């Protein structure tokens, strides 16, 4: 009779009745079998690898590996001798695999994962192979993506191959500049150059890589150059570069095939539209996204739900999927290829909101995500280190008597895109509204903001900054040569700030017929130093005409600044019921302010940014631009 067993209640026994109960039997069984192997009890087979012998149980090997299961069922020499020599793997890896077979535990390390994967693949151990691939996926980055792609192709690891290709496409600019890339085999170069989804900004970079790869081993690779060159989209290379570098490259001049290819492609793609069609689908193009604001027509103001997109290269506007609510004085920012619109004042209620919506470029659709913790308008939304930061602004407050008003705030919160949550972080030392900011190297610098007295908190150049790693606010110690204000000391002054070359640049533009009072200065972050620069304004327009009712501005790549503003009838000297919009694309080069492009649009039905709208810029693949192009309803007219 069994004694000293733990008692069990009748209710518990009824709950267990008819059910299979799992206890620790399987774990204890593995422990006992593993101990038997250690003690060489009941073992009936020997594995040899690189001079080391392992005594094992056939039934354990056959249960864990279809390779051994087949081996033990056939009348092979190993079956008869009771010994198998494994020349395809090391003793260390075999020891690790046997530990897994006898315990269910596997240790995957960087120095052995490749051989472990190879051995698991040979032994048909799918679970181990999957674990190795998962480990490689976690280690995948720009430095090893080409090697990972090669491994994935050998071992038919589809998930790893897909991830490696995506990493290569997104980081091709960096990948092709790595020294080891010059040693990849011919078929890999061909696949790389033929990939239509490469997110390359400049096709000439691929040409430069091809030339460098060929010259790395010229005798062996020269004959392959013409066939590889046929994958270069020569119509997407700037004409000057094509003439000065491509056509004069010795590898090209010595190849009649290459010269014919250039002649054929350039003769059939003279139009820019054709060149766009020939561009890679993955080529990254910069666009300016604009949303929110108040649409003005004679005697009427109306909040807008429009989402507009400006394509600088094609010089066109298009309308995208609208928001499902009208908002003004909102903030907008791009993060990981998506556009976020947050806060602002809802129209027509004119109430501050905490709403946040996310726009998908791929699907041309909006999704509501988690609201901010606080209602905000006139604030900054800044991407930094994979998160969004909502800084300052104005929030609602209910005063005595029940009236509702707006007050500037000090609070700051961070949005984590991975888990869709907002959390408060360290607050600013002063209240701040109408905030503008830039981010670089784990720091967010406030370039403009009004305190409770309407004074620019960055006016003297001592920019407040936030360290995202330490969660601490600080202030730049250096002061700027030229005092900066906007809408306070000089109501005609418009202050534009942007980040370039690890420097924060400030451009003071003037509303009126003359821009002689404008200024340009920059703050060098590394040196903690301000520098004022004397610049020449555009010769054909000494005053870049910027009325007070500027709609928006946003910095874009290559040092350009996109500025858009409304012009009333009085400003432009015409009598019409239509509202005119003027935009400027400015760039600073060699201390010269260049007017790259100016456009105007007219009419209520025209696409144009609304006053108090917000803008941001981002890079999107060419394939999505082509989809946008179908929705283009107006091309801007150049002045």
UniProtKB/TrEMBL annotation:
Coiled coil location: none
Asked if the Swiss-Prot or TrEMBL record annotates the protein with the keyword Repeat, the reply is yes
Which Gene3D superfamilies does the annotation name?
Answer: 1.25.40.420, Kelch-type beta propeller (2.120.10.80), Potassium Channel Kv1.1, Chain A (3.30.710.10)
Xref: SUPFAM superfamilies: Kelch motif, POZ domain
Q: Which residues form the BTB domain?
A: 43-110
Recorded hits in CDD domains, A to Z, give:
BTB_POZ_ZBTB_KLHL-like (cd18186)
Region forming the signal peptide: none
Which superkingdom is the protein from? Answer: Eukaryota
Q: Which UniProt keywords apply?
A: Kelch repeat, Repeat
Name this polypeptide is given: KLHL11 protein
Higher taxonomy: Eukaryota, Metazoa, Chordata, Cephalochordata, Leptocardii
List the gene name: KLHL11
